[in-house]
Amino acid sequence: MPYPGIVHLFALSTALLFGFHLVLTLMRAAWRTSRQRAKHRQLLRLLSNPSQTSANTLVIDHDMPVAYCVPGISQSVTVLSRGLLTQLSAQEQQAVIAHERSHLDQRHDLLILAFTAWHEALPWLPTSRLGLDAVRQLIEMLADDKALEKANRQTLLKAIVTVATAATMDDRSSTPHASSAGLVGMPDGEVSSRRLKRLLSPQDPLSRPQRALVLLSTIMLMVCPTVLLIAPRLLDW
């Protein structure tokens, strides 16, 4: 078997360097996020009270309608504001709580963390930013689907618009928000048009053959580069 050439050694070294950079960035992002969550939990102990109606839910004394969750290994909590409890009806509150708890149950924070680290490691790569934005939208849509099990579309839409409108007004007053990698579901003043269109005009789910095609395409995207990399060596044997 011939010894690898300069081009092969350079490509292999570059791949190893990028892999090490990605892993290191992921570890740094995870450490930073865990510290942010720990500090936020300390503030919540001082500024919030346990909800009388919902388990693992804290209520902060704030006029703006706010709902988000703080993920953790064993201390995940949902945070609601007094303004949200006063401005939303009981059904709307139930939809919001179901939305936030789906973030915790499905561990959407891990997806955000991974794609945030990818974007930080390769900020010059357009797909890193596009991937992060797409994942943020997708997890909100997944949470919406879970909330629709507890409320109808009109109720969920009203709750989303109420929270998003208040967040937009708060952004204009230059109030900073926490990192989305640390706090999932934190309002950022923007609700994507795709998300609203999906709630206003729901489409039929993919058929079983279509889902199988998507799954097969995903597997091929992961397997084909590896096969193309080792195939020439296998043929030489």
Detail the topology: elements first, then pairings.
Blueprint: H1 6-47, E1 48-50, E2 57-60, E3 67-70, E4 77-81, H2 82-87, H3 90-105, H4 108-121, H5 126-147, H6 153-172, H7 193-200, H8 208-236
Parallel strand pairs: 2-4
Antiparallel strand pairs: 1-2, 3-4
Q: In a few lines, what is going on in this structure?
A:
Keywords: Membrane, Transmembrane, Transmembrane helix. The protein is of the alpha+beta class and 237 residues long.
Give the strand content.
Answer: 5-15%
How many alpha or pi helices?
A: 8
Order of helices and strands: HEEEEHHHHHHH
Rg from alpha-carbon coordinates: 22 Å
Residue share in helices? 55-70%
Strand order of the largest sheet: 1-2-4-3
Oligomer: single chain
Secondary structural class: alpha+beta
Number of domains: 1
Overall pLDDT score: 84
How would the global form be characterised? globular
Number of strands: 4
Segments where pLDDT lies below 50 for 5+ residues? 174-181
Largest sheet: 4 strands, mixed
End-to-end Cα distance: 8 Å
InterPro entries: Beta-lactam_resp_regulator, Peptidase_M56
Protein name: Peptidase M56 domain-containing protein
Pfam families: Peptidase_M56
Keywords: Membrane, Transmembrane, Transmembrane helix
